[in-house]
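User: As part of a screening pipeline, I want to sanity-check one entry by hand. Below is the sequence and the SMILES for pyridoxal-5'-phosphate. Please return the complex as structure tokens so I can compare it with the automated output.
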Amino acid sequence: MSASPTTLELFDQYVIPTYGRFGVRIERGQGCRVWDEDGREYLDFGAGIAVTSLGHCHPRVVARMSQQLGQLVHTSNLYYTRPQGELAKRLVEIVGAPGKVFFCNSGAEANEALYKLSRKFGNEANGFALPMGGTSNPEAPLRRGIITMNGSFHGRTLGGIAATGQDKVKKGFEPMVEGYSHIPFNDITALNEAAEARGTVAVLFEPIQGEGGIHPVSPEYLRAARALCDRRSMLLLFDEVQCGLGRTGDWNGWDTLAPDVKPDAVSWAKGIAGGFPLGAVWVSSRLVQLRNGEVKPLCDLLGPGTHGTTFGGTPLICAGALEVLSIIEDERLLENARTLGKYALNALRSLCSPWIREVRGVGLMLGIELAADFGTRHALPPGKAPSIFMVEKLHEAGLLTIPSGTHILRWLPPLNVTAADVDEAVRILSSVLGAL
Ligand SMILES: Cc1ncc(COP(=O)(O)O)c(C=O)c1O
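Assistant: Here is the complex for your manual check:
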């Protein structure tokens, strides 16, 4: 009898190789820890790239989803289901402004809804309705341009790679979807200049760039972007897929930076359902002036038949997401993210290692930038990025972290991480750096 193939053999033979995977074969998880197929334990400071926001297998999530699993899993969006309605209400409360929510399955898909909303707005509306009622102009030029940022990441769909401000995701997939222009991140002058281009309809950015290496925009930038969009009747769109729903120590990443600013629409995914695939967008109910003379809320522009998905917002996943959001509240995890984020930041900064150029972060979204000459000083093999080298060394020492670009390590632990977990992670990093 032939031996059954190993996990790596299965992947080699049967899984399309879109990912450069690390060698770790994870079998189970509990809290902030996972175990591999050989029973080896790892401290999980990646949380599935900011997804398992309560760690693995939180007992309340397991109980709520098990109950829902036995009650109703899926119906399609042809019918009404209570958990989807309740989750939409909860998300509107989290934004703190009137609007409505659409559910999908991932971050890229949530951003697709933002692009389609922008197209509808640019094709069918003249802009926001003035408080006293605007005037419609069916002859006004159409607006289709979306401004996004250098270094951004918005997902792997054709729209997502066109929106993303990194060439590496576009290579080989040309021609790009039209209509996106990229500008330097966090540069108010560049933003105002780019908006002068004829036909610009929206600005999209991550309040804190994640894949780009943990870079927040300044509060001034957020306010300037809001003022610009108001002046020119453009949509202000935030991609909160990585930084949203608690990671920064507030429900919204932008709240941590400038709580007085509100976007016109937001995308979420990752941490929203603690590990189950769910994406969502919130769209404001601000009134828009349509070219045909009608006035309607922005959130009703994507009307019946204009957008959809089979799986988005199933009762199972919405029930899980509602439980995740309740636990974040009940266990005071926003506060924990703020406190432990500061604690980790201070501990990392006090390492004072010559291998570290900078440590930065907001809440539990932390970036450790390695020294620029790390690769040459360490004589890394050609093509081996220092970030990948370090992530592998940390794996060997029992700590999971996420690389970002060539020189940055991200720490994105669950929101219920403890000071003892942080101490252990810092100890592991310190000993790996010390042994270099
Ligand atoms: C800010 C941001 N937007 C969008 C995405 C794409 O999300 P997904 O991988 O769920 O499609 C990501 C994923 O890393 C992200 O970080």
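Points to compare against the pipeline: The two ends are 46 Å apart (CA to CA). The first strand starts at residue 26 and ends at 30.
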